[in-house]
Amino acid sequence: MLVGVGFAGVLTISLLVNLVGYFQAPPEPTAEEGFHRHPKELALKTDGPFGQFDRQQLQRGFQVYKEVCAGCHSLNLVSFRDLHQLGYNEAEVKAIANQWAIEVPSVNPETGEAATRKAIPSDKFPSPYANETAARAANNNALPPDLSLMAKARHDGPAYIYSLLTGYQAQPAKLLAEFPATKTPEGLHYNPYFANLNIAMPPPLTADGQVTYADQTPATVDQMAKDVSAFLLWTAEPNLQSRHKSGLAVLAFLIIATVLGYLSYRNIWAEAKRKVAPKGALDPENKVKRTRASKKAGIAG
């Protein structure tokens, strides 16, 4: 017991010392606290329990990834044949795989040496770099992340991606006035939607019309950012529609089961009357009965 009291005392003293230190020398405000922004609102057709993927938007987002993002970012968990879910037929998937700019690592069967080959539908999307060292060497020591699960790896995933892609801007004068030491270093880019405000990735979407959509949708920077965000939501959650359908089926089952349970209760127990003792244990009549029962059983007192 004394050990427990002593331990509690030490913890109390430690807490008080830290509280005094906090109020005497509170932590200084940081640039991130004052200038970091939460992601913008992004409305997608997948929102809500009845949401479904927009295949045209997913195909547009895939085009943006292919023409803009694939040069630096991989999709290691996605296969070419998964593009069937976006509405591409078998011939189109084979053509996309065969014409992919980055070939798949392989081995020359004649010499046993490392080689590359054209991709086939069963292959994963190949990484643009041979390894992490090569990736960092080509990107000022920054490592471009794999995008397969990016929409799940970040809070407000698609909205975060959309905000990041459209959030590049000049560093505010107010920020430099309040925090002179936070001037964006050379080789980095100011983006208030990035955690520490400075990101190594240059703006990938720089002008309207950077890609040409097959469905004639105007390829504004905002539209391209929305489309690739929707595509990356699909790469992270390809079974999202199935989960929505399963959830609705389970919800319907629970509602029906609840109604049936209530009706059964009403049918079986509605006419039954609960029997409640009208008198308590201290009632004189009950005391007499208890005393007689105790004597009969040979229980003293």
From TrEMBL:
InterPro entries: Cyt_c-like_dom, Cyt_c-like_dom_sf, Cyt_c1
Residue ranges of every copy of the Cytochrome c domain listed in the record: 56-165
Keywords: Heme, Iron, Membrane, Metal-binding, Transmembrane, Transmembrane helix
Region spans: Disordered: 282-301
Residue ranges that the Swiss-Prot or TrEMBL entry lists as coiled coil: none
Broad class of the protein's primary localization: membrane
PROSITE patterns from the UniProt entry: CYTC
Database matches in Pfam families: Cytochrom_C1
Localization of this protein: Membrane
Membrane-spanning intervals of the chain: 247-265
Entries under PANTHER family matching the protein: CYTOCHROME C1, CYTOCHROME C1, HEME PROTEIN, MITOCHONDRIAL
Name of the protein this chain belongs to: Cytochrome c1
Source species: Sphingomonas caseinilyticus
